[in-house]
Design goal:
The structure is a homodimer of 149-residue chains. Chain A is mainly alpha-helical and 149 residues long. Chain A has seven helices and three strands, in the order ααβααββααα. In chain A, helix 1 runs antiparallel to helix 6. At the A-B interface, helix 1, helix 2, helix 6 and helix 7 of A face helix 1, helix 2, helix 6 and helix 7 of B. Chain A binds a DNA duplex (30 and 30 nucleotides) through helix 1, helix 2, helix 3, helix 4 and strand 3.
DNA sequence: TGCCATTTAATCGCGCACGATTAAATCGTT
DNA sequence: AACGATTTAATCGTGCGCGATTAAATGGCA
């Protein structure tokens, strides 16, 4: 019985340690990468989530808030304030869709579209900071995309 | 020249798209995993970062705030309020180190230590939700740990 | 001993991130 | 046409996460 108890306790220790490593690795990596982006994005006046929103808009500009939320996997409770800040910076415009007044259409302003030129150096700069071989990058990305669909 | 311009523009598009995929995959995966933990941790009355702090404390209980911050890679500006909430729940105690009044020592209360029993089911539950083969898990963890040291 | 540099947490302000709720517009069905 | 269900953003409250600053204790050195 003493052996049984030991084994159970050992399993608990192992399970919790494993869990710590798994989830913590993801949590820590995300925090570290955000910190890595900060100095690069400061120059553009963007936060990391704002940069992500701009990346999505640079690919296709007039988008509804809902479509942005789908692309970024974010709720309107997160997006609405973020978009208001981008609007206050003059990078985007927000307007109700005349066809369907429930929707809000987000459009890049000329300033917002122009920011793309200054942003194009960011990916390479970040890659340098990451010190991750390009070969591993694609593989890691695919694994993460599949994680917790 | 037109070809040169096209090629440059194409590179920019590609770089920004790649960047979006790389950083976004990490960002999205971290958000999704946090959302996945939420219902499991609600039962324990913990948030995900609070759970991480408890995992660290369950491994070694009297720890300074600084040591916790090192283990979790978090600043005191994040940890102090989080620890105050754990203290308010009766899971930990915070006290100045008599040997060095600058330090604050964090100790598990009996309640906090006992919570470990109820938490031991969490890793397995999460693994089920993740639907990630165990074989991939360790590999992913190692890659993430190396990411952006 | 006295004094300046360093260490350590705490505080403050800002910007996410989310669940729950609300409000308005649209849709469907009768 | 009417009215209940659904869709869509916005709002609210809570809890991070961080950089910058502050305050207190300690250490080191003349």
């Amino acid at each position: 019985m003493s052996q049984n108890t030991d084994s159970t306790q050992h399993d608990t220790v192992e399970a919790l340690r494993l869990d710590r490593q798994l989830c913590f690795a993801l949590y820590g990596a995300a925090n570290r990468v955000t910190r890595l982006y900060r100095p690069l994005l400061d120059a553009l006046g963007l936060t990391y989530p704002q940069y992500l929103a701009m990346l999505v808009l640079w690919e296709a500009s007039p988008r509804t808030v809902g479509a942005l939320g789908e692309a970024l996997d974010l709720e309107s409770s997160t997006l609405t304030p973020l978009l208001k800040r981008l609007e206050a910076q003059g990078l985007i415009a927000r307007a109700r869709d005349p066809q369907d007044e429930r929707r809000v259409i987000v459009t890049l302003t000329p300033t917002g579209a122009a920011l793309r030129d200054r942003a194009k150096a960011v990916p390479e700069q970040l890659l340098c900071l990451l010190e991750l071989p390009l070969s591993e990058l694609g593989d890691l990305r695919e694994r993460l995309k599949r994680l917790a669909v």
